[in-house]
Design a protein that fits this description.
It contains 5 helices and 8 strands; from the N terminus they run H-E-H-E-H-E-E-H-E-E-E-E-H. With 155 residues, it is an alpha+beta fold. It has 2 domains: 86 residues, Translation Initiation Factor IF3 (2-Layer Sandwich); 43 residues, no CATH class.
Length: 155
Protein backbone atom coordinates (compact mmCIF):
# COMPACT_ATOMS: atom_id res chain seq x y z
CA UNK A 1 0.00 0.00 0.00
CA UNK A 2 1.28 3.46 -0.94
CA UNK A 3 1.76 5.91 1.97
CA UNK A 4 1.09 9.64 1.70
CA UNK A 5 2.02 12.50 3.99
CA UNK A 6 -0.87 14.53 5.44
CA UNK A 7 0.05 17.46 3.18
CA UNK A 8 -0.03 15.27 0.05
CA UNK A 9 -3.33 13.76 1.14
CA UNK A 10 -4.79 17.24 1.65
CA UNK A 11 -3.75 18.35 -1.84
CA UNK A 12 -5.21 15.18 -3.37
CA UNK A 13 -8.48 15.64 -1.45
CA UNK A 14 -8.77 19.17 -2.85
CA UNK A 15 -8.03 17.86 -6.36
CA UNK A 16 -10.61 15.09 -6.01
CA UNK A 17 -13.36 17.47 -4.89
CA UNK A 18 -14.50 18.20 -8.45
CA UNK A 19 -14.22 14.61 -9.69
CA UNK A 20 -17.17 12.33 -10.36
CA UNK A 21 -17.05 8.63 -9.43
CA UNK A 22 -15.81 6.52 -12.36
CA UNK A 23 -16.47 3.11 -10.78
CA UNK A 24 -19.63 2.00 -8.97
CA UNK A 25 -19.58 -1.03 -6.68
CA UNK A 26 -23.01 -2.69 -6.48
CA UNK A 27 -24.48 -5.46 -4.41
CA UNK A 28 -22.09 -8.05 -5.93
CA UNK A 29 -19.21 -6.33 -4.14
CA UNK A 30 -15.59 -6.45 -5.22
CA UNK A 31 -15.69 -8.74 -8.22
CA UNK A 32 -12.60 -9.26 -10.42
CA UNK A 33 -14.26 -7.09 -13.10
CA UNK A 34 -14.70 -4.22 -10.63
CA UNK A 35 -11.07 -4.53 -9.50
CA UNK A 36 -9.93 -4.45 -13.14
CA UNK A 37 -11.96 -1.27 -13.80
CA UNK A 38 -10.51 0.39 -10.70
CA UNK A 39 -7.00 -0.58 -11.83
CA UNK A 40 -7.61 0.83 -15.33
CA UNK A 41 -8.96 4.04 -13.80
CA UNK A 42 -5.91 4.40 -11.58
CA UNK A 43 -3.57 3.73 -14.53
CA UNK A 44 -5.15 6.38 -16.71
CA UNK A 45 -6.26 9.02 -14.18
CA UNK A 46 -4.11 8.50 -11.11
CA UNK A 47 -6.75 9.93 -8.76
CA UNK A 48 -10.24 8.43 -8.85
CA UNK A 49 -13.48 8.30 -6.91
CA UNK A 50 -15.36 5.05 -6.36
CA UNK A 51 -19.00 4.95 -5.22
CA UNK A 52 -20.10 2.01 -3.07
CA UNK A 53 -23.80 1.23 -2.99
CA UNK A 54 -24.76 -0.36 0.31
CA UNK A 55 -25.39 0.82 3.85
CA UNK A 56 -22.86 -1.34 5.71
CA UNK A 57 -20.04 0.98 6.78
CA UNK A 58 -17.80 -1.87 7.94
CA UNK A 59 -18.09 -3.55 4.52
CA UNK A 60 -17.12 -0.27 2.80
CA UNK A 61 -14.06 0.11 5.03
CA UNK A 62 -13.05 -3.49 4.30
CA UNK A 63 -13.47 -2.91 0.53
CA UNK A 64 -11.41 0.29 0.78
CA UNK A 65 -8.55 -1.51 2.52
CA UNK A 66 -8.72 -4.46 0.12
CA UNK A 67 -8.57 -2.23 -2.96
CA UNK A 68 -5.61 -0.28 -1.59
CA UNK A 69 -3.71 -3.41 -0.62
CA UNK A 70 -4.30 -5.36 -3.85
CA UNK A 71 -3.75 -2.49 -6.29
CA UNK A 72 -0.92 -0.77 -4.38
CA UNK A 73 -2.95 2.44 -4.13
CA UNK A 74 -3.00 5.11 -1.45
CA UNK A 75 -6.19 5.75 0.50
CA UNK A 76 -6.95 9.46 0.22
CA UNK A 77 -10.45 9.85 1.66
CA UNK A 78 -13.46 7.78 2.70
CA UNK A 79 -16.47 10.00 3.09
CA UNK A 80 -19.92 8.46 3.18
CA UNK A 81 -20.28 6.07 0.24
CA UNK A 82 -17.39 7.63 -1.73
CA UNK A 83 -13.85 6.27 -1.72
CA UNK A 84 -11.00 8.38 -3.10
CA UNK A 85 -7.92 6.46 -4.27
CA UNK A 86 -4.55 7.58 -5.64
CA UNK A 87 -1.76 5.84 -7.48
CA UNK A 88 0.77 7.51 -9.82
CA UNK A 89 -0.26 7.19 -13.49
CA UNK A 90 1.34 4.41 -15.54
CA UNK A 91 0.40 5.88 -18.94
CA UNK A 92 2.51 8.97 -18.27
CA UNK A 93 5.53 6.76 -17.61
CA UNK A 94 4.90 4.86 -20.85
CA UNK A 95 4.64 8.08 -22.83
CA UNK A 96 7.96 9.32 -21.49
CA UNK A 97 9.74 6.08 -22.28
CA UNK A 98 8.37 5.92 -25.85
CA UNK A 99 10.28 7.13 -28.92
CA UNK A 100 10.34 10.88 -29.46
CA UNK A 101 8.99 12.33 -32.69
CA UNK A 102 6.04 9.96 -33.11
CA UNK A 103 2.50 11.29 -33.22
CA UNK A 104 1.43 14.80 -32.31
CA UNK A 105 3.69 17.32 -30.63
CA UNK A 106 3.25 20.87 -29.33
CA UNK A 107 5.40 23.61 -30.91
CA UNK A 108 5.58 27.30 -30.06
CA UNK A 109 5.93 29.59 -33.08
CA UNK A 110 7.23 33.14 -32.60
CA UNK A 111 6.76 35.48 -35.57
CA UNK A 112 8.23 39.00 -35.44
CA UNK A 113 5.95 41.87 -36.40
CA UNK A 114 6.15 43.20 -39.98
CA UNK A 115 7.23 46.67 -38.87
CA UNK A 116 9.61 45.44 -36.20
CA UNK A 117 8.27 47.88 -33.60
CA UNK A 118 5.41 45.80 -32.19
CA UNK A 119 5.50 42.68 -30.06
CA UNK A 120 6.06 39.38 -31.87
CA UNK A 121 3.07 37.07 -32.21
CA UNK A 122 3.37 33.84 -30.27
CA UNK A 123 1.22 30.83 -31.10
CA UNK A 124 1.21 27.22 -29.92
CA UNK A 125 0.46 24.65 -32.61
CA UNK A 126 0.09 20.87 -32.63
CA UNK A 127 2.22 19.29 -35.37
CA UNK A 128 1.69 15.85 -36.81
CA UNK A 129 4.57 13.44 -37.25
CA UNK A 130 5.21 14.42 -40.88
CA UNK A 131 5.05 18.23 -40.42
CA UNK A 132 7.80 20.73 -39.68
CA UNK A 133 8.09 24.46 -39.00
CA UNK A 134 10.11 26.53 -41.46
CA UNK A 135 12.35 29.44 -40.44
CA UNK A 136 9.54 31.83 -41.40
CA UNK A 137 7.17 30.15 -38.96
CA UNK A 138 4.95 28.36 -41.47
CA UNK A 139 4.03 24.70 -41.22
CA UNK A 140 5.03 22.39 -44.07
CA UNK A 141 4.65 18.70 -44.64
CA UNK A 142 7.89 16.77 -44.74
CA UNK A 143 6.56 14.48 -47.47
CA UNK A 144 3.88 14.95 -50.04
CA UNK A 145 0.61 13.28 -49.24
CA UNK A 146 0.16 10.07 -51.20
CA UNK A 147 -2.49 10.20 -53.90
CA UNK A 148 -4.45 7.34 -55.31
CA UNK A 149 -3.57 6.23 -58.81
CA UNK A 150 -7.26 5.50 -59.39
CA UNK A 151 -8.28 9.06 -58.48
CA UNK A 152 -5.66 10.65 -60.71
CA UNK A 153 -6.80 8.41 -63.62
CA UNK A 154 -10.37 9.66 -63.21
CA UNK A 155 -9.46 13.35 -63.55
Amino acid sequence: MLNLTPAERSVLRAEAHGLKPIVMIGEAGLTPAVMKEIELGLDSHGLIKVRVFGDDREARIEMYETICAELDAAPVQHIGKLLVLYRPKKEAEKARSGKAGKGMRMVTIVKPSASGTKKPTISKVMLKGNERVTTGGTIKRAKKRQTSSKKSALS
